[in-house]
Amino acid sequence: MGKPEAPFAYHGLDRIFHEKARLGIVSSLIGHADGLAFSDLKSLCDLTDGNLSRHLQVLQEAGYVDIEKGFDGKRPCTRCRLSARGRVRFSEYLGVLEQVLRKAASSSKKDTGSVRDVLQPG
Amino acid sequence: MQSETMEPALRDVDLALSEVANIRAQLAASTRFLGLAPESNLLMGILAFVVAAAQSFQVQDHVGFIAVWAGTIVACSAVAVLAAVSRARRLHGRMAGAMLGLALQKGLPFGVAAVVITWAICRFSIESAWMLPGLWQILLGLLGFSVLSNLPREIAWVAGWYFCCGTVVLALAGQAGTVSPWMMGIPFAVGQTAVAVILLRANREGSGCG
How far apart are CA B6 and CA A119, in angstroms? Predict the structure, then answer.
């Protein structure tokens, strides 16, 4: 999280993960130790070929995803897998996300309590 | 009015927190556990061979036999646990807690079963102690199968090895009515050495999911 004087800076929210399409890609990959084929990822994340390729490139350049090009029989097949670094960094990202949500929940509960006290005195 | 809109919002936040926790659990469940050290597994295999060789020169009753091997297994387990905690903290980073928790969740039932079975047989039916080496190996084989999702796939062969050895040892010991040190020494020397080789190859290839 941010410095004490900037508690809402959320420096730990890695922008590479904190993007809708890439969050979807990484979330799809976490449950598959052997990775997913490009075509499967495309279906799961509802992305076009170009979009998916671009986001995978970002993740690969950050070292979060490994991409293997091989063959499924005679057909070329690209397989994507979360790297070890990607798993650790995503876990850290989830930790910051949880802090954000807990802070929001805590603030909301305080506000709800204050409003209740006003509406139902005593 | 404001409180009416805040409570659904709180529920949404709680739901989101629960979903993040689920994602964390999925992440841990599909990540290869890096806490197993090739070196310590190789040492376990060598130790098993040495203990079997030393025991083969001595005449021991069942109690003595079981005590030596139970002590060896406990010592090896303690070393493995300490190494696992140290390696997990170093290699898994923030995920270390979750990975160690998962390892404990999967391994503890088998450990408890081994302890309880050993205690029950030694306490109430010492004449059946010949069954213990086979039962221990079968339990170890089952443990190996249960943790496959977090280890290199080749570990399945080692799990199968222990399961088959346990069955064969049970049969041989049952026929003979007694146990030989090599009924423990050979399966564990081969099995743990194989684990060390598999882990070493997997670490070099950087394969697996973690």
Answer: 14
* A16 has pLDDT over 70: yes
| Mean confidence (pLDDT) of chain B | 90
Of B187, B186, B194, whose CA–CA distance to B152 is shortest?
B194
Interface probe with B: pick from A14, A17, A29, A30, most Cβ of B within 10 Å? A30
- Chain A, nearest residue to B8 by Cα: A108
Dmax (CA) for chain B in angstroms is 85
The two three-digit tokens of residue B115, written as one number: 């302890």
Residues 130-189, chain B, touching A (beta carbon < 8 A) = 149
Task: Say whether pLDDT at B111 is over 50.
Answer: yes
pLDDT digits (tens, 9 = 90+) for B143-153: 999 999 899 99
Q: What is the mean pLDDT of residues A8-33?
A: 88
Helix (H, G, I), strand (E, B) or coil at B82: helix
